[in-house]
Design goal:
The complex is a heterodimer of chains A (about 260) and B (about 170). Chain A is α+β, with helices and mostly antiparallel strands and about 260 residues long. Chain A has two domains: about 1-60; about 85-255, no CATH class. Chain A is about 40% helix and about 15% strand. Chain A has helices at about 5-15, 20-35, 35-45, 50-65, 70-75, 85-90, 115-125, 145-155, 230-240, 250-255, and strands spanning about 135, 160, 170-175, 180-190, 195-200, 205-215. Chain A has a six-stranded antiparallel β-sheet, with helices on both faces. In chain A, a hairpin with a 5-residue loop joins strand 5 (about 195-200) and strand 6 (about 205-215). The radius of gyration of chain A is 26 Å and the shape is rod-shaped. Chain B is mainly alpha-helical and about 170 residues long. Chain B has a single domain (about 5-165), classed as Butyryl-CoA Dehydrogenase, subunit A, domain 3 (Up-down Bundle). Chain B is globular, with a radius of gyration of 16 Å. The chains are: A alpha+beta (about 260), B mainly alpha (about 170). At the A-B interface, helix 1, helix 2, helix 3, helix 4 and helix 5 of A face helix 1, helix 2, helix 3, helix 5 and helix 6 of B.
């Protein structure tokens, strides 16, 4: 049976240059029945330029920082329940629900999964990676979206703002940094994705992105209690914040002279 | 069972490869991370089923693939949508954009994403993970000839799409 195929046919089969469907199926069947033919075919395989291109194309995924919530699974003792993907997906689609249990200035909780699509679109340049990344050292992160800049310029904390194609935005915290700059932490919920960011006004009144990141995915019911923003953003706020949260008239006045 | 530190470290070291594997299966990084998350949870709970001396990566990839298959089946039953990944991908590059991704890399990823699901796991293991055909066959529970033919068809489709896209800037 295995002699029915020529070396050229087997080599073409291995390299993906054989386009005869029936012949491909016949070779598959024959190889499944004959380990020696499998070895013969394998020996005839040439180097694949396609494989190299595919490896290159997916290399950024391999190099992206591992999201904290994934590493955390392995840091903790084994858990008694297994996450239900369907439930996770459903949770992702839930509307925002307020939860101030986390502290006076922390996020309201949004049961949203986070791929920071909106922030990726908004920020441009060095785009978002999975784990969230502080960008303070990179001065190039100027806010590109006029809609988002307008929200930061004037919207009070806690007010949902329509950001057109980006989705819905909301400033969740306004404060002064240790260097006196006015800073605002905000979120953007796009289609099925939620991102977090921290922006501070520079001397010219332009908003500079200090940190951005993805929202951690809820894991079953276990992680929902915290409801934290992206860890990189929370860390950046912690590092910079030097005033009480500005709200109401204080916030409006600060925005007037940022 | 609580895994010992060595195994836990080995699993942590595997996460980037697991994400890449799941990204190829699901077609976008958000769904991939859901799969990775569920996979790691399951791996932690059933670590006693892994036989020391056998490949840990292969074992974990198999869990990830089964998770993805279950998830697709459930999504299909629930929503009537076959390919959630395809729908989500319309929203943008991987949901999470990847730094400085070249147009070429994006095009190749899109070509991989258009492959039928049963070719994507073979591509992920043989092309990306550089498993041998035998190892891939064992990890996927498929006969080796079937792995070879799926990869053959995938290579044909990829080469065609890459050639087409490459000539039309």
């Amino acid at each position: 049976m295995s002699m029915a195929f020529t070396d050229a046919q087997l080599a073409a089969f291995m390299d993906g240059t054989l386009e005869d469907d029936a012949l491909i199926a016949a070779i598959e069947t024959a190889i499944n029945a004959d380990p020696a033919l499998a070895e013969r075919a394998e020996a005839l395989a040439g180097a694949s330029g396609t494989a190299a291109a595919v490896r290159d194309a997916f290399a950024p995924v391999l190099e992206a920082p591992v999201p904290e919530h994934l590493a955390r699974i392995l840091a903790a003792p084994a858990r008694a329940e297994v996450i239900d993907l369907a439930a996770a997906r459903a949770a992702r689609a839930l509307p925002p629900t307020a939860n101030d249990a986390g502290g006076s200035w922390r996020w309201p909780q949004f049961a949203a999964m986070a791929a920071s699509l909106a922030l990726g679109v908004m920020i441009g340049g060095p785009l978002l990676t999975g784990g969230g990344r502080t960008a303070a050292s990179d001065g190039s992160l100027v806010l590109a979206s006029a809609d988002v800049a307008a929200m930061l310029d004037s919207a009070p904390s806690g007010q949902a703002v329509d950001l057109a194609s980006l989705g819905t935005g909301e400033v969740v915290l306004t404060f002064r940094g240790a260097d006196g700059r006015l800073c605002r932490q905000f979120m953007i919920a796009g289609a099925g994705a939620t991102g977090d960011a921290l922006a501070c006004a520079d001397n010219a009144g332009e908003w500079q992105i200090e940190a951005y990141g993805r929202r951690a995915a809820p894991v079953g019911e276990m992680k929902l209690a915290g409801g934290d923003a992206a860890p990189a953003v929370v860390a950046a706020v912690d590092a910079i914040i030097a005033s009480d949260p500005l709200v109401g008239a204080d916030e409006a006045a600060a925005l007037g002279r940022k | 069972m609580i895994p010992d530190d060595t195994t836990r470290q080995a699993l942590i070291a595997l996460i980037p490869r697991l994400r890449r594997f799941a990204r190829v299966l699901t077609g976008n990084l958000a769904d991939a991370d859901d799969v990775v998350q569920a996979c790691l949870e399951k791996a932690m709970l059933s670590l006693d089923q892994w036989q020391p001396g056998t490949r840990l990566d292969s074992w974990v990839f198999r869990i990830a693939r089964n998770t993805w298959i279950d998830d697709r089946r459930r999504a299909h039953n629930r929503a009537g949508h076959e390919d959630i990944g395809e729908l989500l991908d319309l929203a943008g590059e991987d949901g999470v954009a990847i730094a400085e991704a070249s147009a070429e890399a994006r095009m190749v990823r899109a070509a991989v994403d258009r492959l039928p699901p049963e070719q994507r796991d073979v591509v992920a293991l043989v092309m990306l993970e550089e498993f041998s055909y035998r190892e891939a066959a064992e990890a996927l529970g498929l006969p080796i000839g079937t792995v070879m033919s799926r990869l053959s068809r995938a290579k044909t489709a990829l080469a065609k799409q890459i050639a087409e896209e490459g000539t039309t800037p």
